[in-house]
Structure to design on (299 residues):
């Protein structure tokens, strides 16, 4: 069994299509098919079955995929550790984060870190709360910014970096847009522009509305903070967004108003696998993050 076969197998399993896998691997489709066939012959089992134009893992193929992903992730970490041992300043940090932090926070943090560690590389992966946890446990990333911070989890651990206030955002010209602060219940009759199911900000907004005595009427749903902000600015409804998502400037911007009752916040933390030591360069970055946000809080 060759490592190349495992790489090809995992890629085909994820894409569910030989042609698409071959395109991402930059090899001929026949080469991928041949390696998969040889792997199946060596194992003595069928790893895939045809389903329409796609391939579907057999039960034993799904079992083998879990093991293959672990093997490849361990190998990748071993290579990274060797490079770090030779020169920690030339290592790579694999980090995940939600989209709402990619607008300003992640670029600011990375830029500051690279002032003193200019040769360290970063590999970024964006995702929703469940996918970030999953990618971390699979070994695809070593650290993850996450919101809200998980209070209890057997396989991950970390620290809360900051607690961020959420603001009401309203269309320009809205009767409440000039107020310094409002109570959330004043928006009870408004249509809300909310994040789609699966995004961590959605339950925060929903729970806040329920605390204020009402369920939000959903007018539109979106998957990015830019979309939510733009729809509100265009008069499609109201919403709640964290301060970090409201730092962009542009021709079409909603009004930002503080909420006095109830207090609406979200926690942002950094997590890693609890049963493993961080790679050296990731540990350096982790220590930097704790100092960075501690200094930020004291300013």
């Amino acid at each position: 069994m060759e490592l190349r076969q495992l790489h090809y197998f995992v890629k085909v399993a994820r894409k569910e299509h030989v042609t698409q896998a071959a395109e991402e691997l930059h090899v001929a489709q026949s080469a991928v098919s041949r390696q998969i066939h040889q792997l199946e012959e060596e194992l003595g089992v069928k790893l895939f079955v045809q389903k329409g134009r796609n391939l579907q893992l057999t039960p034993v193929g799904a079992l083998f995929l879990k093991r293959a992903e672990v093997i490849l992730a361990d190998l990748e970490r071993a290579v990274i550790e060797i490079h770090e041992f030779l020169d920690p300043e030339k290592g790579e940090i694999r980090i995940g984060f939600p989209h709402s932090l990619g607008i300003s926070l992640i670029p600011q943090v990375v830029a500051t870190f690279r002032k003193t560690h200019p040769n360290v590389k970063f590999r970024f992966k964006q995702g929703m709360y469940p996918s970030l946890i999953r990618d971390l446990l699979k070994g695809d990333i070593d650290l993850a910014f996450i919101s809200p911070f998980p209070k209890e989890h057997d396989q991950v651990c970390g620290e809360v970096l900051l607690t961020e206030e959420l603001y009401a955002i309203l269309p320009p010209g809205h009767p409440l847009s000039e107020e310094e602060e409002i109570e959330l219940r004043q928006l009870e009759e408004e249509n809300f522009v909310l994040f789609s199911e699966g995004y961590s900000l959605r339950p925060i907004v929903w729970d806040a509305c329920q605390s204020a005595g009402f369920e939000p009427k959903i007018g539109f749903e979106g998957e990015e903070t830019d979309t939510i902000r733009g729809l509100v600015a265009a008069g499609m409804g109201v919403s709640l967004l964290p301060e970090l998502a409201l730092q962009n400037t542009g021709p079409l911007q909603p009004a930002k108003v503080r909420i006095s009752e109830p207090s609406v916040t979200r926690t942002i933390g950094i997590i890693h696998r609890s049963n493993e030591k961080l790679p050296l360069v990731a540990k350096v970055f982790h220590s930097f993050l704790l100092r960075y946000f501690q200094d930020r809080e004291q300013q």
In short: The longest helix spans residues 59-86.
